[in-house]
């Protein structure tokens, strides 16, 4: 499966390189277009970094929620045991 993924990456990168060469040879991209392309690449990288950061934060929060739920379940168990023991006491 990794081999297919690597092959796709190679094909995509090769296609982009071929298009760049073709467009450059035909009058191609102006300096403004290249600058815009670079700005867009930077924006994509920034958004990917932000997405990764948010995924990490989500994982951290999910772990905290899981821990809190575990503690709540333990408290509920102790409460139920205490209630049962209190009911056993003579009145």
From TrEMBL:
The keyword Signal applies. Keywords: Signal. Residues 1-27 form the signal peptide. PROSITE patterns: PROKAR_LIPOPROTEIN (PS51257). Residues 72-91 are annotated as: Disordered. This is Uncharacterized protein.
